[in-house]
Amino acid sequence: MPAQQKKMLFCTAGVLSLACALGAAAAVGCQLWVRGSVLCSTGALLVNASGPELHKFIGDIQYGLFSGHRVRQCGLGGRPQRFSFFPDLLRIIPASIHVSVILFCTVLIVFALVGAGFFMLNAFGSPYETLHGPVGLYLWSFICCSCGCLIMILFSSEVKIHHLSEKIANFKEGTFTFKTHSEQFANSFWTILVCSLVHFLNALLIRFAGFEFPFSKSKDSGTITGAVDLMY
């Protein structure tokens, strides 16, 4: 492939990697990873609410990795309240999973920035043999893509398997019991999915630039080696 086209591919990959780093950083600081609604089941059972009356017992909840907002309704109007995971909810949430999600988000941001710098260096500079060369570019893209997948898997398990929304809704609530009425992942969660797909695309761009995948053996080298062996 001509050098000019390689520069264009590396510049494109570098810009995409930088955009992913900024997007992931914005997603970490945002509180819209999950939004949904919670039902005050205790209040609804007391008055045997159904149909339109049930809406008086449905509140809202939205949260991210560090903080969130909830509105609990038990038939007498909403009770809005803001909360933070550290240190308020640390006792009731799966702390190891939650901290792991934050850690992998940090790794994703750092290595996306590193990858963007190396892509630009390969486009406009003289790359080194290992970390600055094609093997390093594959490495940064693989790490970022893997971290994005792990973030989605861990956070999804925290929300769906460990019922994070219900734990947050019932925090310091002794009288009423809240159940999850509906919940869906918000934009910040899907931003991590886009970042993972972009880094996978970056690996394909490196391949299109003419670089073989790491640990792959070319047929030419095998043919030459076999010919040399026959000579001896």
Automatic annotation (TrEMBL):
InterPro entries: Clarin. Keywords: Membrane, Signal, Transmembrane, Transmembrane helix. The keyword Membrane applies. It is a multi-pass membrane protein. GO terms for biological process: equilibrioception; sensory perception of sound. It is found in: Membrane. This is CLRN1 protein. One of its GO terms (cellular component) is membrane. Residues 1-26 form the signal peptide. The lineage of its organism: Eukaryota, Metazoa, Chordata, Craniata, Vertebrata. The chain crosses the membrane at residues 97-123, 135-155, 189-209. PROSITE patterns: PROKAR_LIPOPROTEIN (PS51257). Pfam families: Clarin-2. Belongs to the clarin family.
